[in-house]
Structure prediction request, 301 residues.
Amino acid sequence: MIHELGVARALDNHFEPRDARPDDYLLHFSGGACLARVTHVGAADADAGDSGEVFDLPRVRDYRRRPRRVTYLFSLGAERFFLALDDRVVAPAGFAYESMSWLRRAEPQHLLFAAATASQLDRWYRDNRFCGRCGHPTELAPSSREVVCPACAHIVYPKICPGVICAVVSLADDPAEDRIVLTRYAGRTTALWALVAGFTEIGEPLEGTVRREVMEEVGLSVRGLRFYKSQPWGFTDTLLAGFWCEVDGSDELAVDHSELKEARWFRRDEIPLERTGDQTSLTGEMIERFRLEGRAALGER
Ligand SMILES: [Zn+2]
Prediction:
């Protein structure tokens, strides 16, 4: 998964006021799209993502005219990332605004994680330019990652929305007959097979989100919830928690067609291979683990 970067590129998001140096990354977003330089290398290149493309992010030295409002974001190992808060910047030569959904299919993974996480912080900074309590223009706290209101002292912290990924399985007497529910969203052009998923409501524990979302989307009751892993997912301001669970009672699917195009039970040998190369997402990892390991995937990690 994209946040699993190893010790050499471990995330350090401790905030300190820092000055950007020429070699530091300096990201800018416009309309949710990220300034990036894309290299078309062809799908056969081992370094390329499943789109066959690699990309790079701009560094301070790439800008001929340096952005005026710059804040430190985080480091991945020795590499430091900053964000330009200017509405507009003069894009460095060779760089253009690329949608996050497009970048999601490109490599390298550590820059994709950096761009996704930076996009979450960029949305947070832009959405809190004015105090939500009194309407006064806000300021950035000098030595912590907080937006503060000088008029009423209201403090705003970065927004993280919890959500769940639910791998619903049916275990048979013969393990070869074990099955998993895969879903496809309606109204998306690139809808891969996925797992039941949804955001946590206020007042709801994660386990409650799992039970509610599985019932709402595919009409199943579940039991035996087992937490698998969590994943920060900056693309949607989310922290995802992945759960395995077993169908409880009837396995007849009642699909919510307002949200899903379709949902189906798949035996392991029927699972589409479209997620096999997906090293980015928790959804992809859970589907692939069930395809390869079956019920053993539900046990000890
Ligand atoms: Zn205020």
